[in-house]
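Support request from a user on the community tier.

User writes: "When I paste my structure tokens into the form, the page sometimes reloads and wipes my input. The last time it worked, I copied everything first. Here is what I submitted, just in case something in the input itself triggers the reload:"
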């Protein structure tokens, strides 16, 4: 099935690789679909435009603020419902909705531009508290996590989730700070412990690693990868866009083992990157990697 680029005028978030997502995800226009990271509804808008009125689309997100905007934006569509849930709660959601399998699942991992632009601690380019929770209603903030974690364990977080080579030195500096409540405090600890060249990359790695830890991102993804297959209709598709190598590696290995078990046919031998044109137009798309598979 081919799809056309639809014009979208959202001030919020430009969805990534929309044409590729629609082409790979939708096999039955009357089917049941799940957008596990619906965010502000960027992809969901295009998916709903492609589906017929009798189809269903479940949109899930951990961020209630994003969901509220998404709900308002897509309220005109009877096919759509949104749910404040993590995508790894897929079995519970489907059970509650009386659905056994779906025709397609989309995960667009990472952050929305709206979260990046917020003052919730996700970006080192903004001011604000060190929060970093997708779900502001539960769990530890980044500041609380730092307070309750030893320098050694913090260094492991920086190394394992940020691939940061100066992890020990930075962790010590973070723990030595008198105050560690704001984005500015964390930046100052990094400034004190790292050379100025490549500082931006260090900041990005440390912020990424804390965000992954605060939200349990890799555990949730692994949990989902271990269980999604039984909820896909034969011939149904899974499409996952990831933005860093830790996630992409997890998706790749999971697809490989499902292929070995003859449960999944992998549709993307190598991960698809966005076109050069998209990368130029949307800076955020540059690190995207899309992998897709079909339930056998
Ligand atoms: C890149 S954005 C999605 C953007 C969306 N595709 C769009 O076009 O508007 C990623 C979203 O995933 C959400 N998210 C992250 N981890 C999640 C999880 N475990 N379950 C559900 N949503 C999650 C974030 O809150 C964020 O809104």
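"...and here is what came back when it finally went through:"
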């Amino acid at each position: 099935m081919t799809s056309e680029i639809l014009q979208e005028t959202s001030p919020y978030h430009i969805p990534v690789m929309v044409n590729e997502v629609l082409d790979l995800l939708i096999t039955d226009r009357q089917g049941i679909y799940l957008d596990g990271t619906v965010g502000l509804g960027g992809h969901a808008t295009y998916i709903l435009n492609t589906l017929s009125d009798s189809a269903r689309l479940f949109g899930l997100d951990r961020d209630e603020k994003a969901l509220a905007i998404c709900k308002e934006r897509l309220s005109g569509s009877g096919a759509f419902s949104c749910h404040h849930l993590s995508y790894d709660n897929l079995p519970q959601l489907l059970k509650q909705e009386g659905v056994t399998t779906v025709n397609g699942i989309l995960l667009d991992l990472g952050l929305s531009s709206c979260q990046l632009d917020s003052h919730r601690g996700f970006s080192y380019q903004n001011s604000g508290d060190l929060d970093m929770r997708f779900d502001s209603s539960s769990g530890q903030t980044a500041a609380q996590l730092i307070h309750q974690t030893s320098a050694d364990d913090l260094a492991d977080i920086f190394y394992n989730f940020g691939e940061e080579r100066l992890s020990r030195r930075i962790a010590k500096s973070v723990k030595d700070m008198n105050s560690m409540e704001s984005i500015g405090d964390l930046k100052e600890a990094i400034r004190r412990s790292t050379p100025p060249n490549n500082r931006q990359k260090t900041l990005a790695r440390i912020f990424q690693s804390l965000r992954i830890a605060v939200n349990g991102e890799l555990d949730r993804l692994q949990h989902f990868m271990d269980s999604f297959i039984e909820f896909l209709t034969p011939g149904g598709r899974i499409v996952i866009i990831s933005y860093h190598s830790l996630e992409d590696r997890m998706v790749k290995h999971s697809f490989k083992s499902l292929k070995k078990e003859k449960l999944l046919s992998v549709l993307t031998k190598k991960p698809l990157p966005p076109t050069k044109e998209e990368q130029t137009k949307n800076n955020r798309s540059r690190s995207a990697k899309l992998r897709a598979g079909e339930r056998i």
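Agent notes: The reload is a front-end session timeout and is unrelated to the input. Residues 18-114+218-295 form a domain with the Rossmann fold fold (CATH 3.40.50.150). Residues 1-10 have pLDDT under 50 and may be disordered. Escalated to web team.
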